[in-house]
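Please fill in the sequence for the structure shown.

STRUCTURE ENCODING:
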C-alpha cells in the first residue's frame, strides 16, 4: 500500500507540474500501470492544479473503479489501449499542449529542432481530432503510436509514454519545448532540422535517467516554491 501511495504522489506531481506549464489543462490525465494489470489514474472531475492523492483512483482495463472516490476520465480508453498494445509501457500522459497542437492544426510536421526534442522524433500523427473515448479509437491511437515514445493527435493533443511516470513527464516536456522553438523559428524562416547523425548523438547523450531526474527535479522545485 505504501508503494502505491508513492506512485499516487508521483502521478499527482506529474499532473500538477504539467498543469503549471500549460501542457495539461482541465481535461488532461496521466496513469501508471500496476503489476496486477490495473492502473492508477486521476479522476475526471478533479482540479488538476490542486490535485491530491485523494483524486487518484484505481481502475481496471474496462474503466471499472476498484478503489477511489471518483470516476476516471472518459478517455481512460486511451491508456488501456496503449497498455494492451505495449508491454514495455508502464506510464502514459495525455495532454492538450498548445504549441505541438498548433503544428497539427496547420498541417506542419514536427521537426527535431532542439536536442531534447529530438528524442521523440519522428512523432507519428493520429489524423483525427476525435476524443479517444472508446475502444476502436484507442486501438487506432495505439496503432498510430506503434513502438514510438510519443504521438500527436490532429487538432487535439499529444500522448507520451514511458517505463516510469517520470519518463513520460519528461518526454511531454521535451516535445512541447521543441514545438514551441520550432514555431518561433518558423516566424523567422525555415528552422534547422537535425540530421539523422545529430539525432542519434542526442539520443546517446540525452536519453539518460539522471538527466530525466534533473528535469523532473527542476519543475518539482518550482511547483514546491
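FILLED IN BY: designer on duty
SEQUENCE:
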Amino acid at each position: 500500500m505504501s508503494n502505491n501511495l508513492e506512485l499516487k504522489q508521483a502521478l499527482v506531481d506529474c499532473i500538477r507540474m504539467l498543469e503549471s506549464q500549460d501542457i495539461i489543462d482541465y481535461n488532461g490525465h496521466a496513469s501508471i500501470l500496476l503489476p496486477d494489470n490495473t492502473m492508477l489514474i486521476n479522476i475526471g472531475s478533479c482540479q488538476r492544479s490542486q490535485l491530491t492523492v485523494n483524486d487518484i483512483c484505481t481502475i481496471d482495463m474496462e474503466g471499472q473503479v476498484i478503489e477511489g472516490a471518483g470516476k476516471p476520465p472518459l478517455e481512460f480508453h486511451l491508456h488501456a489501449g496503449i497498455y494492451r498494445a505495449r508491454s514495455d509501457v508502464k506510464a502514459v500522459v495525455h495532454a492538450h499542449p498548445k504549441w505541438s497542437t498548433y503544428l497539427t492544426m496547420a498541417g506542419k510536421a514536427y521537426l527535431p529542432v532542439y536536442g531534447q526534442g529530438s528524442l521523440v522524433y519522428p512523432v507519428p500523427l493520429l489524423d483525427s481530432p476525435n476524443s479517444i473515448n472508446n475502444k476502436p479509437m484507442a486501438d487506432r491511437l495505439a496503432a498510430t503510436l506503434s513502438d514510438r515514445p510519443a504521438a500527436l493527435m490532429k487538432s487535439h493533443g499529444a500522448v507520451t509514454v514511458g517505463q516510469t511516470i517520470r519518463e513520460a513527464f519528461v518526454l511531454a516536456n521535451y516535445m512541447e519545448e521543441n514545438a514551441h522553438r520550432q514555431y518561433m523559428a518558423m516566424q523567422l524562416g525555415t528552422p534547422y532540422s537535425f540530421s539523422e547523425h545529430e539525432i542519434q548523438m542526442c539520443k546517446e547523450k540525452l536519453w539518460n535517467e539522471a538527466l530525466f531526474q534533473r528535469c523532473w527535479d527542476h519543475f518539482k522545485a518550482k511547483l514546491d516554491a
